[in-house]
Write a structure and sequence with these properties.
Number of strands: 6
Bound molecules: zinc ion
Order of helices and strands: EEHEHHEEHE
Number of helices: 4
Radius of gyration: 19 Å
Mean pLDDT: 88
């Protein structure tokens, strides 16, 4: 399981990133990726609670980062849709269509969750009420971010680094 380094900043504090690609670490990428983190927690406003940030990122890494974020968001819906489609296809052919579709959906969902834990994204951002969490897969990137943002709080193994 890959280790993730989480740092939080107060919402009102604009984050400063090191001048290197947030995904591959290449210095001076001369490009930025705009990331949007929607507020999806129950009882919170999507409009006022959501957060967007621009991060330094190579063009190629930017495409991969956006694609991964999109697929990660859509995967649960695609799995449910695939399970329903499988159920409809098998319904007229076998009496066990329901259990087969449920089992296939459960396997697909577990595989997706295991993939997310084993291969977390290089960078992710998540808004909270008063703080924004920035997650880095690379400890060097997390430490550089911490140095540039004195008000950020680290959690996990980065606190002792
Ligand atoms: Zn890159």
């Amino acid at each position: 399981m890959a280790e993730i380094f989480r740092l939080t900043l107060p919402r009102e504090e604009p984050p400063k990133f090191p001048d290197c690609c947030i995904v591959c670490g290449r210095p001076e990428p001369h490009h930025q990726a705009s990331l949007f983190a929607g507020e999806m927690r129950r009882g919170h406003s999507f409009l006022s609670g959501s957060y967007s940030v621009k991060v330094p990122c190579c063009v190629g890494c930017s495409v991969r980062l956006h694609t991964r974020r999109l697929l990660s968001g859509l995967a649960p819906l695609l799995i449910v849709g695939g399970g329903v489609a499988l159920l409809l296809v098998l319904e007229s052919r076998t009496k066990s269509a329901g259990p087969i579709a449920w089992f296939a959906g459960a396997i697909a969902l577990l595989t997706f969750l295991a993939w997310r834990v084993a291969f977390p994204p290089a960078f992710s951002v998540e808004p909270d009420d008063q703080y924004v969490s920035f997650e880095f897969r690379d400890v060097g990137m997390a430490q550089a971010f911490r140095r540039l943002n004195p008000r950020c709080q680290a959690s996990g193994s980065l606190t002792s680094a």
